[in-house]
Design a protein that fits this description.
Length: 160
């Protein structure tokens, strides 16, 4: 938190104007949201998933340029402080809620019997794993600069 306050003082604006600052703030928001929710509900299992993700996000943010630069004219508004910070905090709370919901589903459904609840839990988890898998595979193909041509021949026999 001290980093965030000192960077705000040094730059003269909310430190959420570039990718390094935003990802760092988002990681700090995740940790802050976890701390608040932990003191409310006493669920340490939530930290098992949240804190490593926050550490990875902050580590990812450290790969971007860290220089303090003046704001571009489009960002020189009080809305930067309001909009971007509340958006990052909202995303952090939503991420914590997502993890809490998954933990609740896995803990509350009796998986020893085949019921409708078990089926829906499997569908939700399959959808989650499929979505994450598609993101990872497409990111891999994008990183390796893979491209494939798709040739479509219409009814007239012309190649489009």
């Amino acid at each position: 938190m001290t980093f965030f306050i000192l960077r705000w003082i040094a730059s003269g604006h909310a430190p959420v104007s570039n990718l390094f600052e935003f990802t760092t703030f988002f990681g700090m928001s995740l940790v802050g949201a976890f701390i608040v929710i932990y003191f409310m509900y006493k669920t340490p299992l939530l930290g098992l998933f949240t804190l490593p993700v926050a550490a990875l996000i902050i580590a990812y943010g450290s790969m971007f340029p860290r220089e303090v630069t003046p704001l571009i004219p489009a960002l020189q508004s009080y809305w930067l402080h309001i909009h971007v910070t509340t958006t990052a905090i909202g995303q952090a709370i939503l991420a914590i809620s997502f993890v809490a919901g998954l933990i609740y589903l896995v803990k509350s459904v009796d998986q020893t019997k085949k019921t409708k609840s078990t089926l829906w839990l499997e569908i939700v988890l399959f959808g989650l794993i499929s979505t994450l898998g598609f993101v990872l595979v497409s990111s891999f193909f994008a990183a390796t600069d893979y491209s494939a041509k798709f040739n479509y021949i219409n009814k007239d026999g012309q190649l489009l």
